[in-house]
# Entry
Amino acid sequence: MLTISGLTKSFGSGANKLQVLKGVEMEIERGEMVALMGPSGCGKSTLLNIIGGLLAGDGGSITLNERTYGLKGPSSVVDVRRELVGWIFQDFHLLDNLSAVDNVAMALELSGMSASDAEKAAINSLERVGLGDRMHHIPDQLSGGQQQRVAIARAIAGNRPILLADEPTGNLDIASGKEVLALFKELCHDEEKPISILMVTHDPDLASNADRMLLLKDGKTEASDIRSAWGLDEDGEEE
Ligand SMILES: Nc1ncnc2c1ncn2[C@@H]1O[C@H](COP(=O)(O)OP(=O)(O)OP(=O)(O)O)[C@@H](O)[C@H]1O
Ligand SMILES: [Mg+2]
# Structure
């Protein structure tokens, strides 16, 4: 589904050059929920931005559902952003004055859907995230967890195969964070329409609920378990 090989990225030049990604290799299957961890500044958001078509890498490649990209600037990967990747952010990025249904529908209209189809699809995805009874509330009238679920409805409404979530639970209390995780798992493990999710989190407890954990370390990703994510030794344990 998603294959990344030899992906490199640096910022700056000369003495100020900072090599952030040093040959990332990773794969995500359809229906998999993968947690990405690593210390602040190690390049997690940079990696997500390149996968999401918001930033060009320097070397290597990304293949997502037959589409290969990674080194071209944002203007050359419009289709990746419109059709392949859905985003979920820490601070939800909802429009304050629009109801839940309009927040979701507007995103669909921007990608070319007619207003009536967009509204139907918006209602459908809000029902999927359990907000069928909150469609006409504006963000201020919703809890943080509910607002994040509106953002998730928006991200899944366009039937994109992968969601990229950059610290989606960072602004939520523990209980709401767990609910978001449970919803993610449901969406990934859906029998009819499984999607994949790559989620950055600093919370090892939430990460351990994913199907798999990756650690971004020294510019490369490696498989991780809960203890190595905490920086502990795995002495004697098999891989
Ligand atoms: N546009 C940019 N120009 C210069 N340096 C950048 C740019 N974007 C990111 N960096 C640097 O690249 C490194 C990786 O940043 P990134 O935001 O990917 O880290 P992160 O792992 O997401 O961190 P956090 O957990 O704090 O969100 C950091 O040292 C950052 O300062
Ligand atoms: Mg980040």
About this structure: The chain has one domain: 2-229. The helical segments are 44-51, 78-84, 100-110, 115-128, 144-157, 174-188, 204-207, 226-229. Residues 44-45, 166 surround magnesium ion (ligand 2) (CB under 6 Å). The two ends are 24 Å apart (CA to CA).
